[in-house]
Amino acid sequence: MNERNTLHTFTDLSAEQSRLADVLLPLLSAHLNGQDIGLDDDYYAMGGDSLIALRVVSAAQEQGVPMTLRDLLYFPTVRELVAHLAASDGELAEDGAATDTSAFALLSSGDRALLPKEVVDATPATALQLGMIYLCESSGDPELYHSLIGWETVARFDEELFRQALAELCERHPALRSSFDLGSLATPLQLFWESVELPLTVERVATDHDADRPEQAVDLRDHGQDLPIDWSQAPLFRCHVATTDSTFHVTLAMHHTIVDGWSYGQLIVDLLTLYDAKLSGTDAGLPALPSTVHRDFVRAEQEIRTSQVAADHWQEQADVPALLFDRGKFSGAANAVESVGFPLSPELVIQLRDAARGLGVPLKALALGAHARALAHWKGRARDLTTGVVINARPEQASSDLAVGLYLNTVPLRFRSLEGSWADLARTALAAERNATPYRAFPLAEIESRLGRPAFDVTFNFTNFHIYRDIEGLRALSARSWWVRGKPSFPFRVDFEIDSSHAVGSRVVVAFDPDLVDPSEVRGYAWAFETALTAAAADPHARAVLDADEAVTAGDRA
123 phi and psi, to 5 degrees? Predict the structure, then answer.
Protein backbone atom coordinates (compact mmCIF):
# COMPACT_ATOMS: atom_id res chain seq x y z
CA MET A 1 0.00 0.00 0.00
CA ASN A 2 1.27 3.45 -0.91
CA GLU A 3 2.40 5.74 1.94
CA ARG A 4 -0.30 8.26 1.09
CA ASN A 5 -2.90 5.79 2.33
CA THR A 6 -1.32 5.45 5.78
CA LEU A 7 -0.85 9.10 6.69
CA HIS A 8 -2.87 10.38 9.63
CA THR A 9 -3.02 13.96 8.32
CA PHE A 10 -3.40 15.45 4.85
CA THR A 11 -2.12 18.95 4.27
CA ASP A 12 -5.10 19.98 2.15
CA LEU A 13 -7.80 18.49 4.40
CA SER A 14 -9.25 19.61 7.70
CA ALA A 15 -8.56 17.56 10.82
CA GLU A 16 -11.96 15.82 10.63
CA GLN A 17 -11.59 15.17 6.91
CA SER A 18 -8.13 13.70 7.55
CA ARG A 19 -9.55 11.40 10.24
CA LEU A 20 -12.21 10.14 7.88
CA ALA A 21 -9.76 9.73 4.99
CA ASP A 22 -7.40 7.78 7.24
CA VAL A 23 -10.23 5.24 7.72
CA LEU A 24 -11.65 5.22 4.22
CA LEU A 25 -8.51 4.95 2.06
CA PRO A 26 -7.25 1.63 3.42
CA LEU A 27 -10.81 0.36 3.68
CA LEU A 28 -11.48 1.05 0.02
CA SER A 29 -8.16 -0.46 -0.96
CA ALA A 30 -8.99 -3.65 0.94
CA HIS A 31 -12.33 -3.99 -0.87
CA LEU A 32 -10.85 -3.19 -4.30
CA ASN A 33 -8.28 -6.00 -4.43
CA GLY A 34 -5.52 -4.06 -2.68
CA GLN A 35 -5.32 -1.29 -5.28
CA ASP A 36 -3.57 1.90 -4.28
CA ILE A 37 -6.45 4.34 -3.71
CA GLY A 38 -5.79 8.06 -3.55
CA LEU A 39 -7.96 10.98 -2.49
CA ASP A 40 -9.08 11.70 -6.04
CA ASP A 41 -9.56 8.16 -7.32
CA ASP A 42 -13.18 7.44 -8.22
CA TYR A 43 -14.52 4.38 -6.39
CA TYR A 44 -16.55 3.16 -9.38
CA ALA A 45 -13.83 3.88 -11.91
CA MET A 46 -11.44 1.77 -9.81
CA GLY A 47 -13.70 -1.24 -10.25
CA GLY A 48 -16.21 -0.74 -7.45
CA ASP A 49 -19.85 -1.62 -7.94
CA SER A 50 -23.11 -1.52 -6.00
CA LEU A 51 -22.55 -4.91 -4.38
CA ILE A 52 -19.02 -4.15 -3.18
CA ALA A 53 -20.39 -0.79 -2.02
CA LEU A 54 -22.70 -2.59 0.42
CA ARG A 55 -19.63 -4.11 2.07
CA VAL A 56 -17.72 -0.81 2.03
CA VAL A 57 -20.57 1.08 3.70
CA SER A 58 -21.05 -1.64 6.32
CA ALA A 59 -17.32 -1.72 7.15
CA ALA A 60 -17.16 2.09 7.32
CA GLN A 61 -20.10 2.25 9.70
CA GLU A 62 -18.47 -0.38 11.92
CA GLN A 63 -15.43 1.92 12.15
CA GLY A 64 -17.53 4.91 13.12
CA VAL A 65 -17.91 6.58 9.73
CA PRO A 66 -21.58 7.61 9.35
CA MET A 67 -21.90 7.07 5.59
CA THR A 68 -24.62 5.55 3.43
CA LEU A 69 -24.78 3.89 0.03
CA ARG A 70 -26.20 7.11 -1.39
CA ASP A 71 -23.18 9.04 -0.06
CA LEU A 72 -20.79 6.76 -1.95
CA LEU A 73 -22.93 6.97 -5.08
CA TYR A 74 -22.92 10.77 -5.22
CA PHE A 75 -19.44 11.37 -3.73
CA PRO A 76 -17.32 8.60 -5.28
CA THR A 77 -13.86 10.02 -4.46
CA VAL A 78 -12.53 10.09 -0.91
CA ARG A 79 -11.89 13.82 -1.16
CA GLU A 80 -15.53 14.49 -2.08
CA LEU A 81 -16.83 11.95 0.41
CA VAL A 82 -14.93 13.20 3.46
CA ALA A 83 -15.87 16.82 2.65
CA HIS A 84 -19.52 15.80 2.51
CA LEU A 85 -19.35 13.70 5.68
CA ALA A 86 -17.44 16.33 7.63
CA ALA A 87 -20.05 18.94 6.72
CA SER A 88 -22.93 16.70 7.80
CA ASP A 89 -24.11 16.26 11.37
CA GLY A 90 -22.16 13.03 11.80
CA GLU A 91 -25.26 10.93 12.43
CA LEU A 92 -26.98 8.40 10.23
CA ALA A 93 -30.57 9.33 9.43
CA GLU A 94 -33.20 7.49 11.39
CA ASP A 95 -36.17 5.93 9.61
CA GLY A 96 -38.62 7.20 12.21
CA ALA A 97 -41.00 4.65 13.65
CA ALA A 98 -39.52 1.28 14.53
CA THR A 99 -40.00 -1.37 11.85
CA ASP A 100 -41.24 -4.83 12.74
CA THR A 101 -38.52 -7.21 11.51
CA SER A 102 -39.97 -10.43 12.92
CA ALA A 103 -41.10 -13.40 10.84
CA PHE A 104 -44.53 -13.00 9.21
CA ALA A 105 -44.36 -9.22 9.87
CA LEU A 106 -45.73 -8.37 6.40
CA LEU A 107 -48.74 -10.72 6.61
CA SER A 108 -52.26 -10.12 7.79
CA SER A 109 -53.31 -12.03 10.88
CA GLY A 110 -55.87 -13.90 8.77
CA ASP A 111 -53.31 -15.21 6.28
CA ARG A 112 -50.86 -16.11 9.02
CA ALA A 113 -53.48 -18.19 10.84
CA LEU A 114 -54.04 -20.30 7.72
CA LEU A 115 -50.40 -21.22 7.11
CA PRO A 116 -49.15 -24.77 7.76
CA LYS A 117 -47.14 -25.13 10.96
CA GLU A 118 -44.08 -26.19 8.92
CA VAL A 119 -43.91 -22.69 7.38
CA VAL A 120 -41.45 -20.62 9.44
CA ASP A 121 -41.87 -17.34 7.55
CA ALA A 122 -43.81 -15.89 4.63
CA THR A 123 -43.83 -12.64 2.68
CA PRO A 124 -46.00 -11.23 -0.09
CA ALA A 125 -44.68 -12.32 -3.47
CA THR A 126 -42.99 -9.43 -5.26
CA ALA A 127 -44.27 -8.00 -8.52
CA LEU A 128 -41.31 -9.50 -10.38
CA GLN A 129 -41.93 -12.97 -8.93
CA LEU A 130 -45.62 -12.81 -9.83
CA GLY A 131 -44.79 -11.63 -13.34
CA MET A 132 -42.32 -14.45 -13.90
CA ILE A 133 -44.74 -17.10 -12.70
CA TYR A 134 -47.53 -15.67 -14.86
CA LEU A 135 -45.33 -15.74 -17.96
CA CYS A 136 -44.12 -19.27 -17.21
CA GLU A 137 -47.70 -20.48 -16.91
CA SER A 138 -49.16 -18.56 -19.85
CA SER A 139 -46.31 -19.37 -22.27
CA GLY A 140 -46.23 -23.10 -21.63
CA ASP A 141 -42.45 -22.92 -22.17
CA PRO A 142 -40.76 -25.33 -19.71
CA GLU A 143 -37.43 -23.49 -19.93
CA LEU A 144 -38.65 -19.95 -19.41
CA TYR A 145 -37.14 -18.39 -16.27
CA HIS A 146 -35.28 -21.56 -15.38
CA SER A 147 -31.56 -21.03 -14.90
CA LEU A 148 -29.07 -23.88 -15.24
CA ILE A 149 -25.39 -23.72 -14.43
CA GLY A 150 -22.84 -26.51 -14.39
CA TRP A 151 -19.17 -27.05 -13.71
CA GLU A 152 -16.54 -29.71 -13.12
CA THR A 153 -15.20 -30.00 -9.57
CA VAL A 154 -11.66 -31.29 -9.32
CA ALA A 155 -11.82 -33.31 -6.10
CA ARG A 156 -12.98 -36.71 -4.92
CA PHE A 157 -16.72 -37.09 -4.53
CA ASP A 158 -18.06 -38.28 -1.19
CA GLU A 159 -21.84 -38.47 -1.50
CA GLU A 160 -22.51 -38.31 2.23
CA LEU A 161 -20.31 -35.25 2.71
CA PHE A 162 -21.81 -33.57 -0.33
CA ARG A 163 -25.32 -34.21 0.97
CA GLN A 164 -24.33 -32.68 4.30
CA ALA A 165 -22.96 -29.61 2.50
CA LEU A 166 -26.13 -29.26 0.41
CA ALA A 167 -28.31 -29.63 3.52
CA GLU A 168 -26.33 -26.90 5.29
CA LEU A 169 -26.70 -24.70 2.22
CA CYS A 170 -30.50 -25.10 2.37
CA GLU A 171 -30.47 -24.32 6.09
CA ARG A 172 -28.34 -21.21 5.49
CA HIS A 173 -30.44 -19.74 2.67
CA PRO A 174 -34.23 -19.67 3.21
CA ALA A 175 -34.86 -19.12 -0.51
CA LEU A 176 -33.85 -22.73 -1.10
CA ARG A 177 -36.66 -23.82 1.24
CA SER A 178 -39.34 -21.68 -0.38
CA SER A 179 -42.37 -22.09 -2.62
CA PHE A 180 -45.32 -19.92 -3.67
CA ASP A 181 -49.00 -19.94 -2.76
CA LEU A 182 -50.79 -17.64 -5.19
CA GLY A 183 -54.42 -18.58 -4.75
CA SER A 184 -55.50 -19.99 -1.41
CA LEU A 185 -54.86 -16.90 0.72
CA ALA A 186 -55.84 -13.25 0.57
CA THR A 187 -52.38 -12.28 -0.67
CA PRO A 188 -50.06 -14.23 -3.03
CA LEU A 189 -47.21 -15.38 -0.80
CA GLN A 190 -43.71 -16.77 -0.88
CA LEU A 191 -43.58 -19.45 1.82
CA PHE A 192 -40.39 -20.40 3.66
CA TRP A 193 -40.45 -23.94 5.03
CA GLU A 194 -38.62 -25.30 8.04
CA SER A 195 -36.98 -28.02 5.97
CA VAL A 196 -37.10 -29.63 2.52
CA GLU A 197 -36.15 -32.95 1.01
CA LEU A 198 -32.82 -32.55 -0.76
CA PRO A 199 -33.40 -32.60 -4.57
CA LEU A 200 -30.08 -34.39 -5.25
CA THR A 201 -29.47 -37.09 -7.83
CA VAL A 202 -26.11 -38.83 -8.29
CA GLU A 203 -24.84 -41.05 -11.10
CA ARG A 204 -21.56 -42.64 -12.00
CA VAL A 205 -20.05 -42.09 -15.47
CA ALA A 206 -16.99 -43.61 -17.09
CA THR A 207 -13.71 -41.71 -17.44
CA ASP A 208 -11.95 -40.92 -20.68
CA HIS A 209 -8.29 -41.31 -19.72
CA ASP A 210 -7.15 -39.87 -23.03
CA ALA A 211 -8.51 -36.40 -22.29
CA ASP A 212 -7.98 -33.79 -19.67
CA ARG A 213 -11.69 -33.88 -18.89
CA PRO A 214 -14.09 -36.80 -19.18
CA GLU A 215 -16.04 -36.95 -22.39
CA GLN A 216 -19.02 -37.88 -20.29
CA ALA A 217 -19.04 -34.34 -19.05
CA VAL A 218 -21.55 -34.48 -21.92
CA ASP A 219 -24.60 -32.36 -21.82
CA LEU A 220 -25.48 -32.79 -18.21
CA ARG A 221 -27.43 -29.59 -18.70
CA ASP A 222 -30.07 -31.81 -20.30
CA HIS A 223 -29.65 -34.74 -17.96
CA GLY A 224 -31.40 -35.35 -14.67
CA GLN A 225 -33.16 -32.00 -14.56
CA ASP A 226 -36.95 -32.15 -14.89
CA LEU A 227 -38.30 -28.84 -16.14
CA PRO A 228 -40.37 -26.92 -15.45
CA ILE A 229 -39.94 -26.84 -11.68
CA ASP A 230 -43.30 -26.62 -9.90
CA TRP A 231 -43.30 -23.21 -8.20
CA SER A 232 -45.90 -24.37 -5.67
CA GLN A 233 -43.73 -27.15 -4.24
CA ALA A 234 -40.51 -26.53 -2.31
CA PRO A 235 -37.68 -26.67 -3.09
CA LEU A 236 -37.50 -24.72 -6.33
CA PHE A 237 -34.12 -26.09 -7.37
CA ARG A 238 -32.52 -29.37 -8.47
CA CYS A 239 -28.95 -30.63 -8.13
CA HIS A 240 -27.45 -33.41 -10.25
CA VAL A 241 -23.97 -34.85 -9.80
CA ALA A 242 -22.15 -37.09 -12.29
CA THR A 243 -18.99 -38.62 -10.79
CA THR A 244 -15.82 -39.95 -12.38
CA ASP A 245 -12.66 -41.38 -10.84
CA SER A 246 -11.14 -38.06 -9.81
CA THR A 247 -13.66 -35.32 -10.59
CA PHE A 248 -17.39 -34.76 -10.57
CA HIS A 249 -19.75 -32.59 -12.55
CA VAL A 250 -22.46 -30.57 -10.85
CA THR A 251 -25.58 -29.18 -12.51
CA LEU A 252 -27.82 -26.79 -10.60
CA ALA A 253 -31.23 -25.90 -11.99
CA MET A 254 -33.25 -23.17 -10.30
CA HIS A 255 -36.47 -21.30 -10.80
CA HIS A 256 -35.46 -17.69 -11.42
CA THR A 257 -38.18 -16.49 -9.02
CA ILE A 258 -35.94 -17.31 -6.05
CA VAL A 259 -32.49 -16.18 -7.25
CA ASP A 260 -30.82 -13.47 -9.28
CA GLY A 261 -27.48 -13.92 -11.01
CA TRP A 262 -25.39 -12.71 -8.06
CA SER A 263 -27.32 -14.99 -5.71
CA TYR A 264 -26.63 -17.96 -7.99
CA GLY A 265 -22.92 -17.24 -7.66
CA GLN A 266 -23.23 -16.87 -3.88
CA LEU A 267 -24.93 -20.26 -3.64
CA ILE A 268 -22.24 -21.98 -5.68
CA VAL A 269 -19.42 -20.40 -3.68
CA ASP A 270 -21.12 -21.32 -0.39
CA LEU A 271 -21.78 -24.91 -1.54
CA LEU A 272 -18.20 -25.47 -2.64
CA THR A 273 -16.88 -23.79 0.52
CA LEU A 274 -18.99 -26.09 2.72
CA TYR A 275 -17.93 -29.20 0.80
CA ASP A 276 -14.28 -28.12 0.77
CA ALA A 277 -14.37 -27.72 4.55
CA LYS A 278 -15.76 -31.22 4.96
CA LEU A 279 -13.11 -32.73 2.70
CA SER A 280 -10.31 -30.91 4.51
CA GLY A 281 -11.71 -31.32 8.02
CA THR A 282 -11.81 -27.58 8.66
CA ASP A 283 -14.45 -25.01 9.52
CA ALA A 284 -16.12 -23.41 6.50
CA GLY A 285 -16.04 -20.02 8.24
CA LEU A 286 -19.02 -18.64 6.35
CA PRO A 287 -20.06 -15.25 7.77
CA ALA A 288 -23.41 -14.80 9.48
CA LEU A 289 -26.28 -13.68 7.25
CA PRO A 290 -28.58 -10.74 7.94
CA SER A 291 -32.06 -12.02 8.69
CA THR A 292 -34.19 -9.19 7.32
CA VAL A 293 -32.92 -8.64 3.77
CA HIS A 294 -35.87 -10.29 2.06
CA ARG A 295 -38.51 -8.64 4.22
CA ASP A 296 -36.81 -5.26 3.78
CA PHE A 297 -36.80 -5.74 0.00
CA VAL A 298 -40.49 -6.61 -0.08
CA ARG A 299 -41.34 -3.74 2.28
CA ALA A 300 -39.41 -1.26 0.11
CA GLU A 301 -41.40 -2.36 -2.94
CA GLN A 302 -44.69 -2.03 -1.08
CA GLU A 303 -43.85 1.46 0.12
CA ILE A 304 -42.58 2.90 -3.15
CA ARG A 305 -45.48 1.60 -5.26
CA THR A 306 -47.61 4.42 -3.84
CA SER A 307 -45.03 7.11 -4.67
CA GLN A 308 -46.22 9.52 -7.36
CA VAL A 309 -42.71 10.97 -7.57
CA ALA A 310 -41.32 7.56 -8.46
CA ALA A 311 -44.12 6.90 -10.95
CA ASP A 312 -43.50 10.26 -12.62
CA HIS A 313 -39.77 9.59 -12.85
CA TRP A 314 -40.27 6.31 -14.70
CA GLN A 315 -43.04 7.76 -16.87
CA GLU A 316 -40.58 10.40 -18.07
CA GLN A 317 -37.83 7.82 -18.67
CA ALA A 318 -40.09 5.61 -20.79
CA ASP A 319 -41.90 8.36 -22.74
CA VAL A 320 -40.04 7.62 -25.99
CA PRO A 321 -41.18 6.04 -29.29
CA ALA A 322 -40.53 2.31 -29.68
CA LEU A 323 -37.10 1.34 -30.96
CA LEU A 324 -37.62 -2.05 -32.61
CA PHE A 325 -41.32 -2.61 -33.28
CA ASP A 326 -44.80 -1.30 -32.65
CA ARG A 327 -45.85 -1.43 -29.00
CA GLY A 328 -48.74 -3.75 -29.80
CA LYS A 329 -46.63 -6.35 -31.63
CA PHE A 330 -45.03 -7.77 -28.53
CA SER A 331 -46.97 -9.01 -25.54
CA GLY A 332 -46.41 -11.87 -23.12
CA ALA A 333 -43.15 -13.81 -23.14
CA ALA A 334 -40.76 -13.65 -26.07
CA ASN A 335 -39.09 -16.81 -27.31
CA ALA A 336 -35.47 -15.66 -27.30
CA VAL A 337 -34.00 -18.89 -28.66
CA GLU A 338 -31.29 -17.42 -30.88
CA SER A 339 -28.20 -15.42 -30.05
CA VAL A 340 -25.22 -13.72 -31.59
CA GLY A 341 -22.25 -12.18 -29.88
CA PHE A 342 -18.56 -11.52 -29.78
CA PRO A 343 -15.69 -12.05 -27.33
CA LEU A 344 -14.20 -9.24 -25.27
CA SER A 345 -10.48 -9.84 -25.41
CA PRO A 346 -8.43 -9.32 -22.23
CA GLU A 347 -6.66 -6.46 -24.00
CA LEU A 348 -9.94 -4.73 -24.86
CA VAL A 349 -11.27 -5.17 -21.31
CA ILE A 350 -8.08 -3.59 -19.93
CA GLN A 351 -8.39 -0.70 -22.40
CA LEU A 352 -12.03 -0.17 -21.46
CA ARG A 353 -11.20 -0.22 -17.75
CA ASP A 354 -8.39 2.27 -18.26
CA ALA A 355 -10.63 4.54 -20.32
CA ALA A 356 -13.37 4.41 -17.67
CA ARG A 357 -10.88 5.09 -14.88
CA GLY A 358 -9.52 8.07 -16.76
CA LEU A 359 -13.04 9.47 -17.13
CA GLY A 360 -13.92 8.80 -13.51
CA VAL A 361 -16.89 6.57 -14.45
CA PRO A 362 -17.67 2.88 -13.90
CA LEU A 363 -16.94 0.43 -16.70
CA LYS A 364 -20.69 -0.26 -16.80
CA ALA A 365 -21.39 3.41 -17.67
CA LEU A 366 -18.90 3.37 -20.55
CA ALA A 367 -20.35 0.11 -21.88
CA LEU A 368 -23.93 1.35 -21.49
CA GLY A 369 -23.13 4.57 -23.33
CA ALA A 370 -21.57 2.58 -26.18
CA HIS A 371 -24.66 0.32 -26.23
CA ALA A 372 -26.95 3.34 -26.55
CA ARG A 373 -24.86 4.79 -29.38
CA ALA A 374 -24.86 1.42 -31.16
CA LEU A 375 -28.64 1.25 -30.88
CA ALA A 376 -29.00 4.78 -32.26
CA HIS A 377 -26.70 4.02 -35.18
CA TRP A 378 -28.32 0.65 -35.86
CA LYS A 379 -31.89 1.95 -35.94
CA GLY A 380 -31.13 5.38 -37.38
CA ARG A 381 -32.32 7.20 -34.26
CA ALA A 382 -30.66 10.62 -34.21
CA ARG A 383 -31.68 11.35 -30.62
CA ASP A 384 -33.84 10.28 -27.69
CA LEU A 385 -34.05 6.56 -27.05
CA THR A 386 -34.78 4.38 -24.05
CA THR A 387 -33.19 1.06 -23.17
CA GLY A 388 -34.03 -1.27 -20.34
CA VAL A 389 -31.19 -1.70 -17.84
CA VAL A 390 -30.89 -4.37 -15.14
CA ILE A 391 -30.02 -2.77 -11.79
CA ASN A 392 -29.23 -4.02 -8.30
CA ALA A 393 -32.09 -3.35 -5.87
CA ARG A 394 -30.78 -4.99 -2.69
CA PRO A 395 -31.61 -3.23 0.55
CA GLU A 396 -28.89 -1.04 1.98
CA GLN A 397 -27.78 -2.97 5.03
CA ALA A 398 -24.73 -4.78 6.29
CA SER A 399 -23.90 -8.02 4.43
CA SER A 400 -26.99 -7.91 2.22
CA ASP A 401 -24.73 -8.99 -0.66
CA LEU A 402 -24.46 -12.39 1.08
CA ALA A 403 -28.21 -12.97 1.02
CA VAL A 404 -29.81 -15.12 -1.67
CA GLY A 405 -32.97 -14.01 -3.46
CA LEU A 406 -34.35 -12.13 -6.45
CA TYR A 407 -33.12 -8.63 -5.63
CA LEU A 408 -32.92 -6.83 -8.95
CA ASN A 409 -35.08 -4.73 -11.22
CA THR A 410 -35.09 -3.86 -14.91
CA VAL A 411 -35.91 -0.23 -15.56
CA PRO A 412 -36.06 2.20 -18.51
CA LEU A 413 -33.15 4.63 -18.82
CA ARG A 414 -33.43 7.45 -21.34
CA PHE A 415 -30.73 8.98 -23.53
CA ARG A 416 -32.06 12.31 -24.77
CA SER A 417 -28.93 13.02 -26.78
CA LEU A 418 -26.68 10.62 -28.65
CA GLU A 419 -24.28 13.38 -29.68
CA GLY A 420 -20.89 14.29 -28.27
CA SER A 421 -18.01 12.06 -27.28
CA TRP A 422 -17.91 8.56 -25.79
CA ALA A 423 -17.08 10.29 -22.52
CA ASP A 424 -20.28 12.34 -22.79
CA LEU A 425 -22.36 9.22 -23.36
CA ALA A 426 -20.71 7.45 -20.42
CA ARG A 427 -21.46 10.39 -18.13
CA THR A 428 -25.05 10.49 -19.37
CA ALA A 429 -25.38 6.79 -18.55
CA LEU A 430 -23.90 7.30 -15.09
CA ALA A 431 -26.20 10.24 -14.35
CA ALA A 432 -29.27 8.30 -15.51
CA GLU A 433 -28.51 5.38 -13.20
CA ARG A 434 -27.67 7.66 -10.27
CA ASN A 435 -30.93 9.55 -10.72
CA ALA A 436 -32.79 6.23 -10.75
CA THR A 437 -31.33 5.05 -7.44
CA PRO A 438 -34.02 6.50 -5.12
CA TYR A 439 -36.70 4.77 -7.20
CA ARG A 440 -34.94 1.47 -7.95
CA ALA A 441 -37.48 -0.61 -5.99
CA PHE A 442 -40.41 0.61 -8.11
CA PRO A 443 -41.44 -2.56 -9.98
CA LEU A 444 -41.33 -2.77 -13.75
CA ALA A 445 -44.84 -4.26 -13.75
CA GLU A 446 -46.13 -1.09 -12.11
CA ILE A 447 -44.27 1.11 -14.61
CA GLU A 448 -45.82 -0.77 -17.53
CA SER A 449 -49.26 -0.88 -15.94
CA ARG A 450 -49.27 2.91 -15.72
CA LEU A 451 -47.89 3.26 -19.25
CA GLY A 452 -50.33 0.74 -20.70
CA ARG A 453 -47.51 -0.77 -22.79
CA PRO A 454 -43.97 -2.17 -22.50
CA ALA A 455 -41.50 0.39 -21.19
CA PHE A 456 -38.76 -0.69 -23.62
CA ASP A 457 -38.01 -3.40 -26.16
CA VAL A 458 -34.23 -3.71 -25.66
CA THR A 459 -32.59 -4.74 -22.39
CA PHE A 460 -28.97 -4.24 -21.30
CA ASN A 461 -27.42 -6.31 -18.52
CA PHE A 462 -23.88 -5.72 -17.23
CA THR A 463 -22.46 -8.53 -15.09
CA ASN A 464 -19.18 -8.88 -13.23
CA PHE A 465 -19.67 -11.70 -10.74
CA HIS A 466 -16.36 -11.32 -8.94
CA ILE A 467 -17.70 -13.52 -6.16
CA TYR A 468 -16.45 -16.56 -8.08
CA ARG A 469 -12.90 -15.51 -7.18
CA ASP A 470 -13.59 -16.82 -3.68
CA ILE A 471 -13.39 -20.37 -5.05
CA GLU A 472 -9.71 -19.88 -5.84
CA GLY A 473 -8.81 -19.90 -2.13
CA LEU A 474 -10.36 -23.28 -1.32
CA ARG A 475 -8.04 -26.00 -0.02
CA ALA A 476 -9.31 -29.36 -1.25
CA LEU A 477 -10.97 -28.59 -4.59
CA SER A 478 -11.06 -26.39 -7.65
CA ALA A 479 -13.68 -25.76 -10.32
CA ARG A 480 -13.46 -25.55 -14.10
CA SER A 481 -15.40 -26.18 -17.35
CA TRP A 482 -18.29 -23.87 -16.53
CA TRP A 483 -21.44 -23.51 -18.64
CA VAL A 484 -24.64 -21.53 -18.17
CA ARG A 485 -28.07 -21.65 -19.74
CA GLY A 486 -31.13 -19.53 -19.08
CA LYS A 487 -34.10 -18.06 -20.86
CA PRO A 488 -35.60 -14.69 -19.90
CA SER A 489 -38.71 -13.25 -21.49
CA PHE A 490 -37.26 -10.14 -23.15
CA PRO A 491 -37.36 -10.07 -26.98
CA PHE A 492 -33.88 -8.50 -27.33
CA ARG A 493 -31.40 -8.73 -24.47
CA VAL A 494 -27.77 -7.65 -24.48
CA ASP A 495 -25.50 -9.23 -21.85
CA PHE A 496 -22.12 -7.59 -21.29
CA GLU A 497 -20.24 -10.19 -19.23
CA ILE A 498 -16.94 -9.62 -17.46
CA ASP A 499 -15.56 -13.06 -16.65
CA SER A 500 -14.17 -13.06 -13.12
CA SER A 501 -13.90 -16.86 -12.90
CA HIS A 502 -11.82 -17.30 -16.08
CA ALA A 503 -14.48 -19.79 -17.13
CA VAL A 504 -15.73 -18.78 -20.56
CA GLY A 505 -14.02 -15.43 -21.12
CA SER A 506 -15.49 -11.95 -21.14
CA ARG A 507 -18.02 -11.51 -23.90
CA VAL A 508 -21.15 -9.86 -25.24
CA VAL A 509 -24.16 -12.09 -25.93
CA VAL A 510 -27.29 -10.83 -27.70
CA ALA A 511 -30.28 -13.13 -27.18
CA PHE A 512 -33.35 -12.45 -29.30
CA ASP A 513 -36.65 -13.80 -30.58
CA PRO A 514 -36.22 -14.46 -34.33
CA ASP A 515 -39.98 -14.09 -34.85
CA LEU A 516 -39.75 -10.51 -33.64
CA VAL A 517 -36.28 -9.38 -34.77
CA ASP A 518 -34.56 -10.40 -37.99
CA PRO A 519 -31.25 -12.24 -37.28
CA SER A 520 -29.39 -10.22 -39.93
CA GLU A 521 -30.46 -7.02 -38.19
CA VAL A 522 -29.22 -8.35 -34.87
CA ARG A 523 -25.82 -9.01 -36.39
CA GLY A 524 -25.83 -5.37 -37.50
CA TYR A 525 -26.35 -4.26 -33.91
CA ALA A 526 -23.59 -6.61 -32.68
CA TRP A 527 -21.17 -5.09 -35.19
CA ALA A 528 -22.15 -1.57 -34.13
CA PHE A 529 -21.70 -2.35 -30.42
CA GLU A 530 -18.33 -4.03 -30.94
CA THR A 531 -17.18 -1.09 -33.04
CA ALA A 532 -18.42 1.37 -30.43
CA LEU A 533 -16.61 -0.40 -27.60
CA THR A 534 -13.37 -0.51 -29.58
CA ALA A 535 -13.62 3.19 -30.43
CA ALA A 536 -14.48 4.19 -26.84
CA ALA A 537 -11.55 2.19 -25.50
CA ALA A 538 -9.10 3.71 -28.00
CA ASP A 539 -10.11 7.35 -27.42
CA PRO A 540 -13.01 8.04 -25.05
CA HIS A 541 -12.80 11.77 -25.78
CA ALA A 542 -13.34 11.28 -29.51
CA ARG A 543 -16.71 12.07 -31.08
CA ALA A 544 -19.02 9.05 -30.81
CA VAL A 545 -19.54 8.17 -34.47
CA LEU A 546 -19.60 4.89 -36.37
CA ASP A 547 -18.86 4.33 -40.06
CA ALA A 548 -22.20 4.27 -41.88
CA ASP A 549 -20.90 2.43 -44.95
CA GLU A 550 -19.54 -0.43 -42.85
CA ALA A 551 -22.77 -0.64 -40.85
CA VAL A 552 -24.82 -1.17 -44.02
CA THR A 553 -22.93 -4.38 -44.82
CA ALA A 554 -22.44 -5.55 -41.25
CA GLY A 555 -25.12 -8.22 -41.52
CA ASP A 556 -23.36 -9.75 -44.54
CA ARG A 557 -19.94 -9.82 -42.85
CA ALA A 558 -21.07 -11.05 -39.40
Answer: -140, 155
